Amino acid sequence: MTARGNKLDKYKRFHLMGIGGAGMSGLALLLSQLGYEVSGCDVAHSCYVEKISKRGIDFKIGHGKDHIEEFAPDALVCSSAIPAGNAELKFASSKGIPIFKRAEVLSWLFNDRSGIGVAGTHGKTTTASMIGLMFELANMNPTVAIGGELCDIGGNAKLGEGSHMIAELDESDGSFELFRSEVAVVTNADWDHVDHYPHFHSVVNAFERFLCNRKDDGVAVLCGEDKGVQVLIEDSALDNVVTYGWGTSWDWGAIDVSHKAGGGTSFKVLHKGKFIDTVELRVSGDHNVLNALAACAVANLYSIPMEVIKEALKRFSGAKRRLQHMGKIGEVDIFDDYGHHPSEINATLMALKKIFPERRITAIFQPHRYTRTAAMYKEFAESLMVADKVFLMPIYPADEAPIEGVSSSLIYNAIIDKNREKFSLCSNSDEVVDRVCEGVESGDVILTIGAGDVFMVGDKIIKILQGRDLSINAVAVEA
Known about the structure:
The protein is an alpha/beta fold and 479 residues long. It has helices at residues 22-33, 47-54, 65-71, 87-94, 102-111, 124-137, 200-212, 227-235, 286-301, 306-315, 342-355, 370-384, 409-413, 429-439, 455-466, and strands spanning 13-17, 37-42, 58-61, 75-78, 99-101, 114-119, 143-150, 155-158, 164-168, 183-186, 219-223, 241-246, 252-259, 265-271, 274-281, 324-329, 332-337, 361-365, 389-392, 423-425, 445-449, 474-475.
């Protein structure tokens, strides 16, 4: 589809501040593929910058008013991480250039299409990616916009010729309320982003507004197992609802779930209580079974055959930084995950326990944001106890200023005494690398987890272990 929405027709040249992020780079790719002139800037290079540069999109390091003078955009798009007082933003405003948030522009694309919007505190990247692959294999040629990098399409965004658009929608700042979905998926509604949502019910209320913004006759696909979604259903007068979860209580259900040693899952799919088929997944964990059920429910609404659904789920290799296997050094496996909420950490560690039931699991956790750590340090401590050994890194601040008295020590001090010996509080990443490599044993599973740059710790561990004279051969796995 090459037609432009009316709002987009007003502009020819877009400049994106924060273009190095997953979401902003994806929007840049879509705008470029639609034929707009696109430029961007960010404070540092990233893997996403490399991808947009290959597409001919101009990129500058840093922020400054000279970017506005050089590229002469007629619209500026900024990520939520850019502060309002930024000099480049202020200069663009003084020149009368309209300024938009990423979600605003993405919603213009989405609302002009048959949109499948995937929201939820956890699991939306994977669920949206599964749905996207199903539509691809069904030859429906969708437009896809994912907040993480989908391994199966080699990126985080793709402009399709079809009428459908599958998008991961971010609730962190309330911007998902701009989207009018034909099918709206909510994987869960957990309390997070405490700087924007002061309490649990403010999150639930936001998801309710998102669902009420569906197009006429739009369908809501909801996880009936999630407590937040249950509150949402009970407190709202929602119509056109399809539910999914365990067993026969929901419209779509999973039974006889089998977790395979070494990775992968299989389960039986039920629809309206009747057995449909047995599905196999390459990805692991109960959470991914639920994600797959959501994707099944959406695909069924668009009459995608079960054979295609099964093939897509069997082929789906996951999204980057979602329990991603980063390397295998002898009998030591290294994984990386983006999880930064206690529920996500628990789900990831439980998945690893089922994949490797007899092996020691070492978790390297980097808390993300001071506000989240202050609000949830006890829950972080509890979720991390699933691991056999835990190394706590300093907090990754993102765009937040430090808060007095808030550090990773809060998590460490919340550990009950009988588990304290398996936790280590580290002052920097080099200390983590040294201590993990010093104590590693054959058969260990090492997990780096967090939304910051903790994955770089895993990269360093892999390089050090590869350089050792081990009794077993080192085999690198491509990230």
